[in-house]
Amino acid sequence: MRIPSDIHARVLELTDAIVDAGRDGDTRTSWSAYDTLRNYCETLAAEGRDHPFLWETLADFTGNDSVAIGLYQRALPLATAAGADEYAASICLALAERHSNLDQPEPARDYAEQADAFARRSNDLPLRQEISQFLLDHATPPAE
Predict the structure, then answer these.
(1) What percent of the chain clears pLDDT 70, i.e. is strictly above it?
(2) If you average pLDDT over residues 5-28, what whole number do you get?
(3) Distances (CA, A) of 35 to 39, 40, 61, 86
(4) How far apart are CA 24 and CA 30, in angstroms?
(5) Looking at beta carbons, which pairs linking 36-40 to residues 24 or more positions away fall under 8 Å?
(6) Helices 125-137 & 105-119, crossing angle to 10 degrees?
(7) Sign of the four-CA dihedral 115, 121, 124, 126
(8) DSSP labels, the chain
(9) Helix 27-46 crosses helix 5-23 at what angle (to 10 degrees)?
(10) What is the largest CA-CA distance in the chain?
């Protein structure tokens, strides 16, 4: 799924600002760039230029797992509607990881399995390996 070049450039600019400010310990600038990114995502969605890349990226830079889950869930139907299996797999894996962080093993496993199903339709071997590793790491031990 193609990301329009103007969207990619602006998101990259903002995420670089977040990373640079974080590295410098400048929380105010980091939060400001994050808010600008969030507003940019909302503006593009309102203009009819919504894209899963926007919400996945915003979620990736969101420290609160519960908030990030909501953002990933906003990205997922956009990716699936576009038939963008790699995006959907990546988003589902992120959802699995965030649910795991919240000690919610059932939704974590469900999203990891969805990620695996999407990834099997892609050629992204590193993503497929990452999903497989997550599934192995979070396997339910057999009942005794």
Answers:
(1) 97
(2) 97
(3) 6, 8, 11, 27
(4) 9
(5) 37/11, 37/61, 40/10, 40/11, 40/14
(6) 150
(7) positive
(8) -PPPHHHHHHHHHHHHHHHHHHHTT-HHHHHHHHHHHHHHHHHHHHTT---HHHHHHHHHT---HHHHHHHHHHHHHHHHHTT-HHHHHHHHHHHHHHHHHTT-HHHHHHHHHHHHHHHTTS--HHHHHHHHHHHHHTPPPPP-
(9) 160
(10) 56
120-137 tens-digit pLDDT: 999 999 999 999 999 999
Q: Please answer whether residues 52 and 84 qualify as being in contact, where contact means their C-beta atoms are separated by less than 8 angstroms.
A: yes
Q: Take residue 59 and report the two structure tokens written for it.
A: 């979620």
127, two tokens: 């993503």
Of 77, 70, 66, 59, nearest to 114 (Cα)? 77
Whole-number Cα distances in Å, 8 to 89, 99, 103, 109:
20, 28, 33, 31
